[in-house]
């Protein structure tokens, strides 16, 4: 399945946010700000984020983008009826240096399962890009007290 123009534009937004990160004069590590994320909402807004590397751990780009959307009033499955009524519809993560779309890590998949189960995720499937459901990405998810799988 080909990506829609909106999905292709979302990839461009994710690339733009990671490409905007200034490059320092110190030798970069592969673990420094290497991932950008973009989320599309039902009202057309796009929220972005980048990962924050620190030796003690740090948030993935997806989680930063989720937080940016929440701060702007976009609800999650845990906060129905709160916010401005917009819902997140699509998410994509890309690697820096034009390395393209990357699939979400396990932690991000679990967060999507718990808080944003209706998201469509743009993924790399071999040589092609396509959208996948969160259930498709995490078929045997841990089911916490937050939600029960239908």
UniProtKB/TrEMBL annotation:
A single GO BP: pyrimidine-containing compound metabolic process
> Secretion signal: which residues?
none
Q: Which domain of life is it from?
A: Eukaryota
Q: Pfam families from the entry?
A: dCMP_cyt_deam_1 (PF00383)
In this chain the CMP/dCMP-type deaminase domain maps to 4-145
> Which molecular function terms from Gene Ontology are attached?
cytidine deaminase activity; zinc ion binding
Q: Name one GO cellular component term.
A: cytosol
Query: Which InterPro entries has this protein been placed in?
Result: CMP_dCMP_dom, Cyt/Deoxycyt_deaminase, Cytidine_deaminase-like
Q: Which family does it belong to?
A: Belongs to the cytidine and deoxycytidylate deaminase family.
Name the chain's protein: Cytidine deaminase-like protein
Q: Which organism is it from?
A: Hyaloscypha hepaticicola
Give the taxonomic lineage as stored in the record: Eukaryota, Fungi, Dikarya, Ascomycota, Pezizomycotina
């Amino acid at each position: 399945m080909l990506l829609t123009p909106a999905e292709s534009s979302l990839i461009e937004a994710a690339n733009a946010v990671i490409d905007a990160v200034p490059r320092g004069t110190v030798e970069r590590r592969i673990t420094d700000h290497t991932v950008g994320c973009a989320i599309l909402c039902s009202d057309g807004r796009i929220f972005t984020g980048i990962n924050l590397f620190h030796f003690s751990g740090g948030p993935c780009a997806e989680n930063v983008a989720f937080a940016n959307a929440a701060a702007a009033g976009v609800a999650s499955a845990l906060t129905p009826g709160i916010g401005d009524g917009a819902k997140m519809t699509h998410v994509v993560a890309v690697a820096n240096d034009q390395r393209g779309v990357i699939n979400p890590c396990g932690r991000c998949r679990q967060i999507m399962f718990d808080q944003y189960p209706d998201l469509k995720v743009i993924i790399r499937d071999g040589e092609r890009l396509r959208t996948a459901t969160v259930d498709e990405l995490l078929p045997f998810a841990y089911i916490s007290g937050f939600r029960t799988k239908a």
